[in-house]
Amino acid sequence: MASGVDAQLQVLAGEVSDCRRCPRLVAWREQVARQRRASFARERYWGRPLPGFGDPRARLLVLGLAPAAHGANRTGRIFTGDRSGDFLFAALWRSGFASQPTSTSRDDGLRLSDARITAAVRCAPPANRPTPRERETCMPWTQRELALLPCVRVLFCLGAFAWDAAVLLLARVGDSTAPAPRPRPRFGHGAEFAVSDYTLIGCYHPSQQNTFTGKLTDDMIDAVLARARELIDCQDAGWSRAR
Q1: What is the spatial distance between Cα 94 and Cα 166, in angstroms, rounded to a whole number?
Q2: CB 200 within 8 A of CB 155
Q3: pTM higher than the cut 0.70
Q4: Rounded to an integer, what distance in angstroms lies between the CA atom of residue 89 and that of residue 101?
Q5: Which residues pair with 155 in a beta bridge?
Q6: 2-242 has which CATH code?
Q7: What is the pLDDT of residues 176-198, one digit of tens each?
Q8: Which residue from 92, 130, 209, 219 could staple onto 125, CB 3.0 to 4.6 Å apart?
Q9: Sign of the C-alpha dihedral, residues 218, 223, 158, 46?
Q10: Crossing angle for the helix pair 160-171 and 132-147, nearest 10 degrees?
Q11: Could you tell me the residue ranges of all domains in the chain?
Protein backbone atom coordinates (compact mmCIF):
# COMPACT_ATOMS: atom_id res chain seq x y z
CA MET A 1 0.00 0.00 0.00
CA ALA A 2 2.78 2.44 0.88
CA SER A 3 4.35 2.14 -2.56
CA GLY A 4 0.99 2.96 -4.19
CA VAL A 5 0.53 5.96 -1.90
CA ASP A 6 4.08 7.08 -2.66
CA ALA A 7 3.38 7.01 -6.40
CA GLN A 8 0.15 8.97 -6.03
CA LEU A 9 1.83 11.54 -3.81
CA GLN A 10 4.58 11.94 -6.40
CA VAL A 11 1.98 12.55 -9.11
CA LEU A 12 0.28 15.11 -6.87
CA ALA A 13 3.62 16.79 -6.15
CA GLY A 14 4.27 17.20 -9.86
CA GLU A 15 0.85 18.74 -10.44
CA VAL A 16 1.22 21.10 -7.46
CA SER A 17 4.63 22.24 -8.68
CA ASP A 18 3.16 23.27 -12.04
CA CYS A 19 0.23 25.24 -10.60
CA ARG A 20 -0.32 28.84 -11.84
CA ARG A 21 -3.80 29.52 -10.48
CA CYS A 22 -2.98 32.67 -8.47
CA PRO A 23 -1.48 35.42 -10.68
CA ARG A 24 -0.27 37.54 -7.74
CA LEU A 25 1.59 34.62 -6.18
CA VAL A 26 3.03 33.42 -9.49
CA ALA A 27 4.43 36.89 -10.20
CA TRP A 28 5.94 37.27 -6.72
CA ARG A 29 7.53 33.84 -6.37
CA GLU A 30 9.14 34.17 -9.80
CA GLN A 31 10.33 37.73 -9.15
CA VAL A 32 12.01 36.58 -5.94
CA ALA A 33 13.63 33.69 -7.80
CA ARG A 34 15.11 36.12 -10.32
CA GLN A 35 16.10 38.88 -7.90
CA ARG A 36 17.87 36.68 -5.37
CA ARG A 37 19.02 37.79 -1.95
CA ALA A 38 22.73 38.65 -2.07
CA SER A 39 23.67 35.82 0.31
CA PHE A 40 22.03 33.31 -2.07
CA ALA A 41 23.03 34.97 -5.35
CA ARG A 42 24.83 31.89 -6.66
CA GLU A 43 21.93 29.54 -5.93
CA ARG A 44 19.20 28.55 -8.33
CA TYR A 45 15.86 29.20 -6.65
CA TRP A 46 12.97 26.74 -6.83
CA GLY A 47 10.49 29.55 -7.56
CA ARG A 48 7.44 27.26 -7.85
CA PRO A 49 4.63 25.96 -5.62
CA LEU A 50 5.72 23.62 -2.82
CA PRO A 51 4.39 20.05 -2.53
CA GLY A 52 4.12 18.36 0.85
CA PHE A 53 7.07 16.51 2.35
CA GLY A 54 7.39 13.54 4.69
CA ASP A 55 6.18 10.08 5.59
CA PRO A 56 3.31 8.75 3.41
CA ARG A 57 2.19 6.74 6.45
CA ALA A 58 2.20 9.80 8.70
CA ARG A 59 -0.29 10.08 11.52
CA LEU A 60 0.71 13.72 12.13
CA LEU A 61 0.15 16.34 9.42
CA VAL A 62 1.85 19.67 10.10
CA LEU A 63 0.07 22.52 8.32
CA GLY A 64 1.96 25.78 7.86
CA LEU A 65 1.06 29.18 6.45
CA ALA A 66 2.99 29.44 3.16
CA PRO A 67 6.57 29.05 1.88
CA ALA A 68 9.12 31.71 2.81
CA ALA A 69 10.42 33.77 -0.12
CA HIS A 70 14.09 32.96 0.51
CA GLY A 71 13.48 29.71 2.38
CA ALA A 72 11.31 27.05 0.75
CA ASN A 73 10.85 29.18 -2.37
CA ARG A 74 14.64 28.91 -2.70
CA THR A 75 15.31 25.34 -1.57
CA GLY A 76 12.22 23.60 -2.96
CA ARG A 77 11.25 21.89 0.32
CA ILE A 78 8.68 23.18 2.75
CA PHE A 79 10.08 24.97 5.85
CA THR A 80 13.63 24.42 4.61
CA GLY A 81 16.31 27.09 4.60
CA ASP A 82 14.86 29.72 6.95
CA ARG A 83 14.68 30.51 10.68
CA SER A 84 11.09 29.27 11.06
CA GLY A 85 12.11 25.93 9.63
CA ASP A 86 15.18 25.78 11.87
CA PHE A 87 12.92 26.14 14.91
CA LEU A 88 10.28 23.69 13.65
CA PHE A 89 12.61 20.89 12.57
CA ALA A 90 14.59 21.08 15.80
CA ALA A 91 11.31 20.56 17.67
CA LEU A 92 10.25 17.69 15.40
CA TRP A 93 13.63 16.06 15.99
CA ARG A 94 13.34 16.40 19.78
CA SER A 95 9.86 14.87 19.52
CA GLY A 96 11.02 11.90 17.46
CA PHE A 97 9.32 12.91 14.22
CA ALA A 98 12.51 13.97 12.35
CA SER A 99 15.81 12.17 11.78
CA GLN A 100 17.89 15.31 12.34
CA PRO A 101 17.39 18.78 13.86
CA THR A 102 18.25 20.79 10.75
CA SER A 103 16.77 21.18 7.27
CA THR A 104 18.96 22.99 4.77
CA SER A 105 18.28 21.50 1.33
CA ARG A 106 16.28 18.83 -0.48
CA ASP A 107 19.27 16.46 -0.42
CA ASP A 108 20.46 16.94 3.19
CA GLY A 109 19.35 13.44 4.27
CA LEU A 110 16.47 14.59 6.49
CA ARG A 111 13.66 12.07 6.93
CA LEU A 112 10.36 12.48 8.73
CA SER A 113 8.89 9.56 10.62
CA ASP A 114 5.13 9.42 11.29
CA ALA A 115 4.87 13.07 10.17
CA ARG A 116 4.30 15.04 7.00
CA ILE A 117 4.47 18.80 6.41
CA THR A 118 2.42 20.86 4.00
CA ALA A 119 1.05 24.41 3.82
CA ALA A 120 -2.30 26.16 3.50
CA VAL A 121 -0.90 28.13 0.53
CA ARG A 122 1.78 26.53 -1.64
CA CYS A 123 3.47 29.66 -3.09
CA ALA A 124 5.54 32.32 -1.34
CA PRO A 125 3.31 35.40 -0.88
CA PRO A 126 4.33 39.07 -0.80
CA ALA A 127 5.09 40.23 2.77
CA ASN A 128 4.39 36.62 3.85
CA ARG A 129 0.66 37.40 3.72
CA PRO A 130 -1.48 35.20 1.48
CA THR A 131 -5.12 36.17 1.12
CA PRO A 132 -8.14 34.07 2.16
CA ARG A 133 -9.03 33.81 -1.52
CA GLU A 134 -5.59 32.38 -2.31
CA ARG A 135 -6.05 29.91 0.55
CA GLU A 136 -9.38 28.88 -0.96
CA THR A 137 -7.80 28.46 -4.41
CA CYS A 138 -5.10 26.24 -2.92
CA MET A 139 -7.55 24.15 -0.89
CA PRO A 140 -8.18 21.43 -3.53
CA TRP A 141 -4.48 20.49 -3.44
CA THR A 142 -4.65 20.01 0.33
CA GLN A 143 -7.89 18.06 0.05
CA ARG A 144 -6.25 15.67 -2.40
CA GLU A 145 -3.16 15.35 -0.23
CA LEU A 146 -5.17 14.53 2.88
CA ALA A 147 -7.18 11.95 0.94
CA LEU A 148 -3.90 10.19 0.08
CA LEU A 149 -2.82 10.06 3.75
CA PRO A 150 -5.15 7.49 5.35
CA CYS A 151 -3.16 7.24 8.58
CA VAL A 152 -3.38 10.94 9.53
CA ARG A 153 -5.05 11.45 12.90
CA VAL A 154 -3.85 14.89 14.03
CA LEU A 155 -3.44 18.14 12.11
CA PHE A 156 -0.84 20.33 13.81
CA CYS A 157 -1.73 23.88 12.75
CA LEU A 158 0.96 26.57 12.83
CA GLY A 159 -0.89 29.83 13.37
CA ALA A 160 -4.44 31.06 12.92
CA PHE A 161 -4.31 31.13 9.10
CA ALA A 162 -3.39 27.43 8.95
CA TRP A 163 -5.94 26.63 11.69
CA ASP A 164 -8.77 28.22 9.67
CA ALA A 165 -7.62 26.33 6.58
CA ALA A 166 -7.66 23.05 8.51
CA VAL A 167 -11.15 23.70 9.90
CA LEU A 168 -12.45 24.21 6.36
CA LEU A 169 -10.41 21.27 5.06
CA LEU A 170 -12.00 18.85 7.52
CA ALA A 171 -15.47 20.27 6.94
CA ARG A 172 -15.00 19.29 3.29
CA VAL A 173 -13.97 15.68 3.86
CA GLY A 174 -16.55 13.87 1.73
CA ASP A 175 -18.04 17.17 0.46
CA SER A 176 -15.65 19.37 -1.50
CA THR A 177 -17.85 22.48 -1.28
CA ALA A 178 -19.07 22.33 2.33
CA PRO A 179 -18.85 25.57 4.34
CA ALA A 180 -16.84 25.96 7.53
CA PRO A 181 -18.71 25.07 10.74
CA ARG A 182 -20.51 27.80 12.67
CA PRO A 183 -19.47 28.95 15.16
CA ARG A 184 -15.95 28.47 13.89
CA PRO A 185 -13.60 27.00 16.53
CA ARG A 186 -11.14 29.63 17.71
CA PHE A 187 -7.41 29.27 17.29
CA GLY A 188 -5.09 29.37 20.28
CA HIS A 189 -1.80 27.85 21.31
CA GLY A 190 -2.73 24.36 22.48
CA ALA A 191 -6.35 24.69 21.27
CA GLU A 192 -7.99 21.45 20.15
CA PHE A 193 -10.92 20.69 17.88
CA ALA A 194 -12.11 17.18 17.00
CA VAL A 195 -13.83 16.34 13.72
CA SER A 196 -14.72 12.74 12.91
CA ASP A 197 -11.44 10.75 12.86
CA TYR A 198 -9.25 13.87 13.13
CA THR A 199 -8.15 16.31 15.81
CA LEU A 200 -6.79 19.78 15.15
CA ILE A 201 -4.25 21.15 17.59
CA GLY A 202 -3.05 24.74 17.43
CA CYS A 203 0.48 26.08 17.86
CA TYR A 204 1.83 29.59 17.46
CA HIS A 205 3.68 29.91 14.17
CA PRO A 206 7.48 29.53 14.55
CA SER A 207 8.13 32.89 12.89
CA GLN A 208 11.05 34.99 14.12
CA GLN A 209 8.51 37.49 15.41
CA ASN A 210 7.22 34.80 17.78
CA THR A 211 10.41 32.91 18.61
CA PHE A 212 12.67 35.95 19.10
CA THR A 213 10.18 37.62 21.43
CA GLY A 214 9.49 34.50 23.48
CA LYS A 215 5.86 34.21 22.42
CA LEU A 216 6.80 30.70 21.26
CA THR A 217 9.57 28.85 23.09
CA ASP A 218 11.14 25.41 22.73
CA ASP A 219 9.23 24.18 25.77
CA MET A 220 5.93 25.47 24.39
CA ILE A 221 6.18 23.77 21.01
CA ASP A 222 7.57 20.60 22.62
CA ALA A 223 4.55 20.44 24.93
CA VAL A 224 2.09 20.77 22.05
CA LEU A 225 3.93 18.15 20.00
CA ALA A 226 3.85 15.83 23.03
CA ARG A 227 0.10 16.38 23.21
CA ALA A 228 -0.18 15.64 19.48
CA ARG A 229 1.68 12.36 20.02
CA GLU A 230 -0.68 11.51 22.89
CA LEU A 231 -3.73 12.23 20.73
CA ILE A 232 -2.35 10.11 17.88
CA ASP A 233 -1.77 7.14 20.15
CA CYS A 234 -5.17 7.47 21.87
CA GLN A 235 -7.07 7.82 18.61
CA ASP A 236 -5.29 4.88 17.02
CA ALA A 237 -5.94 2.73 20.10
CA GLY A 238 -9.64 3.60 19.96
CA TRP A 239 -9.78 2.96 16.22
CA SER A 240 -8.16 -0.45 16.68
CA ARG A 241 -10.64 -1.41 19.42
CA ALA A 242 -13.54 -0.30 17.24
CA ARG A 243 -12.37 -2.65 14.51
Answers
A1: 25
A2: yes
A3: yes
A4: 5
A5: 61, 200
A6: 3.40.470.10
A7: 777 878 888 999 999 999 988 89
A8: 130
A9: positive
A10: 50
A11: 2-242
